[in-house]
Amino acid sequence: MQNMDKRQNIRNKIRAARRRLEPIFVKTASSAVQREALNLAEWRNAKNICCYLAMPLEVQTDAIIKKCRTEGKPLFVPAFLNAPQKYSLALFDQDDDISLGRFNILEPVNPKWIKTQKIDLVFVPGLAFDRQGGRLGHGGGYYDDLLSQAPLRPACKVGLAFEFQIYDHLPLRLDDVRMDVVITESEIYRF
After folding, report:
1. Which domain holds residue 101?
2. What is the rounded CA–CA span in Å between residue 161 and residue 142?
3. What is the 3-state secondary structure (H, E, C) of the chain?
4. CB neighbourhood size of 4 (10 A)
5. How many folded domains does the chain comprise?
6. Which parts of the chain sit beneath pLDDT 50?
7. C-beta neighbour count of 132 within 10 angstroms
8. What is the pLDDT of residue 103?
9. Which of 65, 151, 169, 186 is the most exposed place for a label (fewest CB within 10 A)?
10. What CATH number should be reported for the domain holding residue 84?
11. Residue 154's pLDDT is what?
């Protein structure tokens, strides 16, 4: 119970800090994070990429998405399956329309679902990350479930965050999926 309270306190603190972010900071810091992400050896070696479609107060992913297209790397994004009420992966093409889906998260309007495609590299959002690769999401467990699915299980998991989202230690659950790398505007953390 105490860990649940700690987790919720961290979520509340990060959400409040994100609401105070200036658009110019989000743009500048996101550019720095994406530049480092696209310099990773894991990026160069990856054939299939999974990336989230960023919301306004998250690290933006527009440069990553654009680079996937210019380099011809297939791009997959999370989209919500109404049955069985969980996220799965959909191929994301350049001309796909997007809209707000479940939980007001951007996703393709007409998802092209995949089941067996092996993903090499996944860029992951989160509310907080720690210096051991721990990640704290919004609390529904949906992203941890997605990361545990067969296509993403072996993938290199790269959390994208602003430096204020980094903690020394987060109170994690056993089913929380750890990151291999976390990138902020000022640091690259490897685990």
Report:
1. 2-190
2. 18
3. CHHHHHHHHHHHHHHHHHHCCCHHHHHHHHHHHHHHHCCCHHHHHCCCEEECCCCCCCCCCHHHHHHHHHHCCCEEEEEEECCCCEEEEEECCCCCCEEECHHHCEEECCCEECCCCCCCEEEECCCEEECCCCEECCCCCHHHHHHHCCCCCCCEEEEECCHHHEECCCCCCCCCCCCCEEECCCCEEEC
4. 11
5. 1
6. none
7. 15
8. 84
9. 169
10. 3.40.50.10420
11. 93
In this prediction, residue 41 carries a pLDDT of 97
Task: Identify the burial level of 92 via C-beta atoms within 10 angstroms of its C-beta, where 0-12 means exposed, 13-18 middle and 19 or more buried.
Answer: buried
Pairing type for strands 112-113 and 86-91 reads antiparallel
pLDDT (0 to 100) of residue 160: 98
Which residues are bridge partners to 98 per DSSP? 108
Residue type, 73: K
